């Protein structure tokens, strides 16, 4: 009975280990799928390690039986069968591994729309460095805003275009390992993790651009150039809604591989830079304080398309008003403005500190001195008009000389109480003002330290505005010159054209910019001048150079 019970236990344990081994084999397949296909490497590795342990445990229990069987007559026959099964498995697994590593894609579309032509392939293969291609599906497309109602054709187009864009991206991936494709779907549970991986392993700037994507987009990123290009899905496929309705079938107009390839080529090129030439920060890209003046909205659009934008200050800003002509970047202009504010704060803090120290001394004198000491320094006057108050003894003579009949009496405890209370309240108020100013001073110093301003002292010594302007415009591809004059004419909110007049050196730099074939966008308000000044744009008898130039251009 003992032997039978032992055999029963052994057979049961053997069966359990075999089940564990089979489970391990299945888990290995699942782990490979998670690791290789779903690209969840950490989870997939855990599953593979666990499956390997399970198979190893099962094999330990199989070794004694395999050894006994191998040396029997029946074992030789079984070994032959096992060898044939092993060879068959090796062929199947080997064929799958080979096909996985050496697969071939066939473009069966009528016009071969997913096949790159030889010229494009050649140009792509000549590119240097690695390119990350990120397909981002946000479920907003065709330039639609969230509040715009979409119909069934829009939703069907989104699904179909996503499939086709993925196919197009994978066609680029086939050109070699330097093209890496990432697929991000905002509705995917792993979206945040994949975006975090891109932020950590690829580029934080790329992850920020993806996070701000206004619609379904494809991003192209070169780490060597630190350059980002964005392509809208609608730049690849356009929905023909009228054709879809007429044919009762989805009609998409394919724009060709050109837009896709151009974005990759553009990564190797310099990112276009757009600048404004402004007389006040409120008219530029960065200032958001006055919504009806600022171009912060334009900056948001430029950022979405990967274009760099900056402001060029034509005038100094002094206490919020327009000052002398200059040429400074936005950061340099802000730096100077902060320096002026810090200088004003330093003077104000010094004055408040002196006033605070004086109030503390007055409070201490009135609260701690004896009445004898107080009356040696102060007296209480009463005028014939009824006016009365405390006065320094040393000023009584001047008061009698100017007024005449003045009654002087000693100060008392009521005066001590009143002066102690007043001086304490004044000291507390001054302390609050001091703390506020010091807090603002610390904030401005911190902001100033973070501004990317280099060699500003040297630039200040360089007074040739024309040379500075030409040097600054050399790296700009598009210049925008806003000349706002009319905001609300019925309410009289208008600005003279004179304030926008360019200094001679500034104008020469803009003119040279145009001669180089670069575009300038003038945003012109109506010519507005006070009636008494007439059409004199400069206020000094000179015609505005920009207005004159535009007149010559018709």
Structure characteristics:
554 residues; 16 strands; alpha/beta; single chain; 16% strand; four-stranded mixed β-sheet; flat
Explain what this protein looks like in three dimensions.
With 554 residues, the chain is α/β, with parallel strands linked by helices. It is 53% helix and 16% strand. It has 18 helices and 16 strands. It has helices at 2-37, 41-70, 73-101, 118-125, 152-173, 191-201, 204-211, 241-247, 258-267, 296-304, 330-368, 371-377, 396-403, 413-449, 456-461, 465-473, 504-515, 545-552, and strands spanning 131-137, 179-185, 217-222, 227-232, 237-239, 252-254, 273-278, 308-318, 321-329, 378-382, 388-392, 407-409, 478-483, 486-488, 493-494, 520-524. The strands form five sheets. The protein has a five-stranded mixed beta sheet, sandwiched between helices. It has a four-stranded mixed beta sheet with strand order 2-1-3-4, sandwiched between helices. Helix 6 runs antiparallel to helix 7 (204-211). The protein is flat and about 135 Å long. The model is unreliable at 142-148 and 531-541 (pLDDT under 50).
Query: Number of helical runs?
Result: 18
Largest sheet: 5 strands, mixed
Fraction in helix: 40-55%
Radius of gyration: 40 Å
Structural class: alpha/beta
Q: What characteristic shape results from the CA principal axes?
A: flat
Poorly predicted segments: 142-148, 531-541
Q: Report how far the terminal alpha carbons are from each other.
A: 115 Å
Topology, number of strands: 16
Placed side by side, the strands forming the largest sheet appear as: 9-8-7-13-16
In terms of DSSP E residues, the strand content is 15-25%
What is the assembly state of the chains in this entry? single chain
Mean pLDDT over the residues: 76
